[in-house]
Design brief:
Layout: E1 2-4, E2 8-10, E3 16-19, E4 25-35, E5 43-48, E6 54-58, E7 63-67, E8 73-77, E9 86-91, E10 96-101, E11 106-111, E12 116-121, E13 138-143, E14 149-153, E15 158-162, E16 168-172, E17 180-185, E18 191-195, E19 200-204, E20 211-215, E21 223-228, E22 234-238, E23 243-247, E24 253-257, E25 264-269, E26 275-279, E27 284-288, E28 294-298, E29 306-311, E30 317-321, E31 325-332
Antiparallel strand pairs: 1-8, 2-4, 3-4, 4-31, 5-6, 6-7, 7-8, 9-10, 10-11, 11-12, 13-14, 14-15, 15-16, 17-18, 18-19, 19-20, 21-22, 22-23, 23-24, 25-26, 26-27, 27-28, 29-30, 30-31
Length: 336
């Protein structure tokens, strides 16, 4: 374990003031960017842990990072001879963090003290193995409506569940090569997921195992991360078609266009009642209101490639950048 104090790569970038449509001054937005200890690292997923800290996966040097809300950072090297790409992470109801390990074809567990205390091998393999990957490629991961751990199997074309004691169940997705990516528990207590290879949103009834699929307007839209919005609908990024999507619990879909080459990935709802997302290709952080009004805020770091996003403590939106950084959105309420 390595522990470092707060080090801001770019603190409070030039303050960005947004203005309401009627010309009155709205909340002021600033983006705080912080470098991770070390160099050449690519953080991806980020989540709030049971301890109130931010936990981050890193795909190059196979680490898990812990970041306190005030910026103190700790790194934990994932042990094992076959550790490769570490991607999704979620906060478990057992007080641990659970994360996906692609090359090990496993779901792994780490305590808030940084102790690796469980490796659970996934039963399935890739439907079409490649020289890069032969396993199920576990990607997004979340706590399901039943309090167990659920995850997307991109290469096995399934949605998986592992209990807190390590027992697996798997559910085949009807569409071939769906490439399930993001997963989330919906307000209706079903499990919802994105099909990045098929351009669909899926819903899994965990009581019956039935999967219902809802096609998007563009089969190549590549939906990625998905979150519960402020309106009790689900919101998701559409990386291939430069849209943000919204789906109701009844399956009604609305798509909101973004500028070309935005390539959104991470998405989360903030305490301000808006949905925030990472604009991977344009190196910005985006915001969309429930009504569909979009704003963008520049990251100072060149080629930042913002990736993952989550709602942090007190509803503050946190994000990762592939340029070896984590950051958060700082909102200063407008003065009356």
């Amino acid at each position: 374990m390595q522990v470092l104090g707060f080090r801001a790569a770019t603190v409070a970038l030039a303050l960005i003031a947004a203005f309401a449509p009627n010309g009155t001054k709205a909340d002021e937005i600033s983006l705080i960017e912080r470098s991770l200890p070390g160099e050449g690292q690519r953080p991806q997923a980020i989540v709030v842990g049971p301890d109130g800290n931010l936990w981050v996966t890193e795909v190059i040097k196979h680490q898990i990072f812990r970041v306190t809300p005030n910026g103190e950072m700790s790194s934990f090297l994932v042990p094992g001879d076959h550790v490769g790409v570490i991607q999704g992470i979620t906060s478990g109801p057992d007080g641990n963090l659970w994360f996906t390990s692609r090359e090990e074809n496993a779901i792994r567990r780490i305590s808030t003290k940084g102790e690796f205390n469980g490796t659970f091998a996934i039963p399935s393999q890739a439907t079409t193995p490649t020289k890069f990957n032969t396993g199920s490629w576990p990607r997004g991961i979340t706590v399901g409506p039943d309090g167990q751990i659920w995850f997307a199997e991109m290469a096995a074309n399934k949605i998986g569940r592992v209990t807190l004691t390590g027992e697996f169940s798997e559910f085949a997705i009807p569409t071939e090569n769906a490439e399930a990516y993001g997963v989330v528990t919906g307000p209706d207590q079903n499990l919802w997921f994105t099909e990045s290879g098929a351009g669909k949103i899926g819903r899994l009834d965990i009581k019956t195992g039935k999967i219902t699929e809802f096609p998007l307007g563009n089969p190549k839209s590549r939906p990625r991360d998905i979150t519960v919005g402020p309106d009790s609908h689900l919101w998701f990024s559409m990386n291939g078609s430069d849209h943000i999507g919204r789906i109701s619990m009844a399956g009604e879909i609305k798509e909101f266009p973004l500028p070309a080459e935005t390539r959104p990935i991470g998405i989360a709802t903030g305490a301000d009642g808006n949905v925030w997302f990472t604009a991977f290709k344009s190196h910005k952080i985006g915001r969309i209101t429930p009504a569909g009004e979009v704003s963008f805020f520049d990251l100072k770091t060149e080629n930042a490639q913002p990736f993952g996003m989550t709602k942090g403590p007190s509803g503050v939106v946190w994000f990762t950048s592939q340029a070896n950084q984590v950051g958060h959105v700082h909102i200063t309420a407008k003065r009356q």
